[in-house]
Amino acid sequence: MSARKLAMTVFRGLQLGFIALVTAHICLGWGYPVLWNLLPLLLAYVLITVVNRWGGGAPDDPRVARAPVEVEPPVTGRWSALNSPADRTPSHGVHAYGQTYAIDVVAEPEPGARPAFSPLRPLARRPTDFPAFDAPLRAVADATVVRVSDGQRDHLGRTSLPALLYLMLVEGSVREMGGVHRIIGNHLVLDLGDGTYAAYAHVRRGSFTVREGDRVRAGQVLARCGNSGNSSEPHLHFQLMDGPDPDTARGVPFTWRGIGVPRGGEVFDVPGPAPVTPA
Asked: Which residue of 6, 97, 216, 266 has the lowest C-beta tally within 10 Å?
């Protein structure tokens, strides 16, 4: 087990220890200062802060710096970027899970097609209300499928302030303790060669058209966009990494052929490819 993997395992164990101490304090009446309950949680977040800054692959770190890898876009049609590495790195605020250069994209086929965020109502929306849901996800290069994780449900879109707070403060913490697969939901990892791996997260349950070990061609449909894992609405979370396991991998910068790296809020169009014959 690598040091990074061990650190993540200890982090989740400390979180579970916090819950166990609180439960024991309430249910068993153990006589110790209540602030001791917070010690495992404090240690957990000190540890994750260290891990998030630990060789994360920041562009100014000469030990891990890499030139951007050019690949094809993973989607077709009209989309908008969120949490882009063109705006900041790490793009999602942490280096953990290989997310240093990750990007989120949501479908924007026309203005107003994507439901807007509302302060209170509706609390949540069905995933089918979002144009990104069920959009095809395509291989960014000729590659080998090395990981397919399926079976997690596509939950409701968190389109209100109460629902978003619940996702961030309650559900997100529970998913963190469940491990990386609960964070990124149904996902797929491709081996692009030369020590580079592409990860697609929040995939729709049951939509995979490939299995581990399959060879795929650039542009081939791999699965469909969903809303599984730690996701506020149907979207694709895409990233390149230097290993197949997001728990231990470092992020690798990317650029999409013909597009570059769109900034947050930038709308971009990707023409549909010619039909692709599976490898």
From this structure: 6
